[in-house]
Each structure stands twice: as structure tokens, then as C-alpha cells.
Fold:
Amino acid sequence: VNLDLGPEALEYGATARRALEAAGGDELLRTAEREPERRDDVIGSLLAALGAWELTPREHPEELEAAAALCRSAGSVALSYPVAERLSRSSDLDADGLIVVSDANPAAPIAGSALRWTALDAEGRRSAVTACVPTGPARTSSFVGRLELEPLDDRGAGDLALAVVLPCWTLLGMLDRALELVRAYVLDRQQFGQPIAAFQGVQFQLTDAEVERAGLEELAKYALWSIEVGRPEAADDALALRLAAIEAADIVFRVAHQLHGAIGFCDETTLSWLSRYSGPLRRLPFGPAETGDLLMRRLGRSGLVGIFGGGS
Amino acid sequence: VDFDMGEEVAALRRELRGLIADHVPADFLGAFTDDPADLATAQAFCRTLAERGLLCMAWPTEWGGRDASLWEQTALREEMWAHHEPRGAQYMGVNWVGPTILRHGTPAQQQLHLPTISSGAAIWCQGFSEPDSGSDLASLRMAAVRDGDGWRVTGQKIWTSYATMAQWCFLLARTSTGERKQQGLTIFLVPMSREGIEVRPIANMLGPHHLNEVFFDDVWVTPDEVLGRLDEGWSVVQEVLAFERVGIARYARCERLLAWAPGALGDEWDSVPAELRSRWARMLVHARRARLLAYRVVDLQGQGRVRPGDAAAYRIAVTRLDQESASVLMEIAGRLRGRDENARRFVRAVEDHWRYAQASTVASGSIEMQRILLSRSLLAAP
Structure:
């Protein structure tokens, strides 16, 4: 039993976070929103310099863990770039990235991207993305665009797990950061002559958020392991993770906003940016109801594999 | 990352499930029912486990254990709790009374108590809570007053599980008054047969034997019944409580009952509303989440790292799971029309789980206390 990512993966994630901080940290997102046409170049080459696009997470377990650690670091600064999606690319297709989509409304935060994208639905059908039509300026769309698709094949079922799991690692990085921010804020902010962290009503909200974040972290490692060792139920584990990730994000951001008060909605606080850019990850490809429905249908009568379920 | 516990743990699970299937009736819902046969089943099962070195497998070999790994101990806790704890009250003796005596007891105390725990013979109860000292345990008032070379104990304990059947009490009483309320507390290992002890059962929704009052009237205790140092019992109690927080694998029973639901419903399962089946799937995710949070605590324990916040986070997650899964399972059980034996057993097990789960956010440290512990650790300087 080993419940931690490998030391190389952890070091890679930490190096990436330092590099992102050095390149501007939270400022990267603000710049991307101001100059959307440059985000591909600026962030894409920053990550290329870290060797991100040489990682082959589908082939090598160590690189899978490094990819997860990188996504988490990217999430911590709400990096406005489809890192997880690029790292999820199918190994048998000539494309730069893979995006899971819902059939109802295929969309993804890749507006303005010049890369070659493949889309994958929950049934394993793959399509070439022929265009991404932005739904508005980045300020309101968070770079999300509606995708136009050209069907390719239905051989993508094996690609699903990784493409669901890595974006959850990005979201985990966002939740880590949201909790760091809210912790610092409640210790600093004074009301009634004391830091608001002294109030139990504040403390208890913080604990609720941390339980969600900590639980998500463990499920994220579990789903990664499931892919790593090629468990047949890896896609179920991925959807289970996604369901927990969306629920956790709802609670953590709700608490973070509530405890920040009005300042948390202002552009001058990082929380506001994190919160806005967590939206697409929580909503796309499927929100909580659809994710739960998909998981339930996949599980049928057998349940999740565990100490009792899944025929164990 | 590697979540595989390995073949030894898998073999242990198979062995335990085999023993349960052979020695515990399929409709067993715990030792503490109105039917004395259930207690007899549990006592016999403890002997069966003890004969195989499984009852106290975490203990050193010289005391009847087999130095089992933390993951084997985890699997044992999971299998036992999932199957309605066929060790009965023994889980307390085995999980924390014995290990605490092993750590803090005198050689004579070890000789007296460890063999009867590791053979499954002795039942213990825990004399901690008092009517005015619940979460604020250190405020307790039961007084042990010096009398010659011993003490006279007078006062009341409450919520004491298994007191009606226990032979021994792990008793916390005040031997002096210090500057802080945590000072001056002493642990005594007292036989329940001692003159002056009276047990009164409290009728309750959790089932018989779970809640009792225990009155001590001028009860004589001796220096060789003191565990650890006089007046310094609080630090031992902290150890005990930390263990109790991860000691019960509540998620395992939730997981077993959830996994059982589709089979119990048979063809009816397909007509369960999709919304309820989605909630069932969600509970499976939450059960896995609680299990993994428990593994995190076990893993840190194995590395000799104790972070009170992790244990508290696990307890918050698992007690909520207990209650939320109980509601979902009750709704599923309510749809049962076909009443074969399997379905009837499922319904009874779910009803028992629901009743017991109502107390899970109160028992062994309320959820509020866990939130206080977790927030302290979150807000502490790094």
C-alpha cells in the first residue's frame, strides 16, 4: 500500500507550481483574459519548457502521476489553459488533446485554440473537433465554446477514464488553493475586535470544506491508481471521482465565498477568479445530476468495486 | 500510488468471511439484543477467533497475538463491523483496553488482564461520561477519596455500554484538584462485582445493553488497580479517544448493506426510481471516500505520524455517511414487496443500521468535537 504519489511526480508538480508562480502566478489568468489571443502561445510554451507535452500518461505510470501533479499545480493558479485535456490525448490518434463531451451540448474551454482536438462521449464515440464557437468574451465564457464535431469512430471507451480523471486533478488544485485563501483570510480579517477565525460558526464551515477537499484528494489518487494498474472498472472509478469532485467544489467554493464576504466577489481577490474559472470544470461535460445518472447506469446492480461491491 | 493491500490481507478476509459463515447465524444483528443466544454466539465466536490467533492479532505474540500488520488489523475491523460485530463487546477490550494496559500497565496488571482479553473471556465497559460531563469530559466529578492505602469512589457514570454484562470497568475518576481540570484524574481498573456498584439499564432506541447508568457508592479501589500514574490519567484517555475515533470501520457496514440492496430487491430493483438509484450510487462513492480517509489515518499511524485533524476529518465523513446511507437504504427497503428470507434479512439489517446510525454523530466524541479538533488543526500555524 502506498497512498502518496511518487516522489518524482510530487517534485515535478512542485517544480511546475514554482515555474507558474515565477511566470506571474495568478496574473497569468488576468493576462489571458485581457489578451486571449496570446494564451496559447504564452502558457503553451511555458508548459512545453517544463516538458509537459512529452509526458505520456497513457503509457507510463510514473508519467501518469506526474501529469496528475501538474494538473493540480495548474489548478492552483486557475491556469486558463486546457492542460488536463492535452495530457489526456488518445495514443492512437493524431491529435493534440482529448475532451470529454456530452451529446446534448458539446462544449469545452478551448476557444481560440489552434491545436487539433478530439472529442469523446461517455459511450466511447470519438469525433474530430472541427470548430469551437466561443459563447462570449472570456470574461463571461471562461474560454468555453460550443464544439462542432465530425464523427471518427467508436473505439474510445478505453480513453474515457483518464480524460475524466485529469480534469478532476485540476479542480482539486483549485480547491486546495481556495482553502489556502480562505484560511489566510479568516485569520486576518478582524470583526468585533478579533479575527473571524475565532468564531465557531466560521470554524465549522471551514471544517466542512476541508472534509470535502481531503476526501476528494483520496478519491483522486484512487482513480489514478485504477488507471495505472489497468482495472477494468477504471471508468466507473473516474465517474465516481467526478461526482465527488463536483460536490466538493460546490461546498468548498460556497464556504470560501461566504467566509470572504463581499470582497470575495471582487476582481482584486484571487478567490473571485478561481471561482469563475472553476465553473466550466464543474459544469462540463456533465454536471452532478448527469454524472450521477451515468454512474448509476454503468454500475447497474453490481455497485462500485470495493470490499463488498462489484462482485467482491 | 498503490491501494492493493496484497494477498495476505485478501486471504485474511476470506478466512474471516468463512468463519462468520460457519459460526454466526445469517440473521445475526449484534450481540446486544433481547435474545441471550446472540451474546452466546458472540462469546463463542470470540473463542473461535482467539484459538486462531485472530482475536488480538495486533498484539505481540507473547500475549496471544500475532503481530499483524496495520492493514490486516484494518481488514479485521472492516469484516467484523460489516457483519454486525460478532465479537460483541470484545472489540473494546481488544482494540483499546488491552493495548492501553500493554502500554501503561504494571506486569501484574498485564498478567491479570491480557490473557482474559486475548482469550475472549472478559467483557469491559468504559466509565467515562457523567451526567454533567459529556463532551467536556475533563470536567468530571466522580471522586476517589483517599482512605488508608486505597480510595473510596463515589459518583455516577452514564451512557455506559455493556455495563450490565461487563466484568471490568475502565474507570476515570478525580483523585485531586489541580490548576487545570485535566489534572488530578486517575484511571482505575475496577471489577464490576465490587460492592457498591449498581448498574441501571436505560431503555433506548439503539437496542438493549447500549446505554446504562452506573452508580458508585463508596466503592473501595486499591493502588494495584491504578493504571499508569496517579493524577495523570488524562493523557492516557487522550490516547484511548484517538484510537476510538478510527477504531470502528462504520463505512464497511454501509458498503455491505449498499452492495446487498440490488440483490435483496431482485427484479424490483429495476423499478426503483432512477433518482433513488442515483442516490444509492452516490452513497457508494461516499462509502469509498470514507474508507479511503480511514486508510489515510492508518497509513500515517504506520509512519508514526499522528495528525489529529486527519482522524477528525475521517470521523466527520464516516458518521455523516452512516446517517445518509441509512436514509437511502430505508427508502430502498421500503420498496420491498417480495418477502423471501434474503429480503427479510436485508430489511431487518437496514432497520438496525438506521436506528444505530442516528447516534453515530453523538457516540464516542460528537461531530461538533471532531469539527473543533479539525478546525484547530487547520488554523494552527504551519
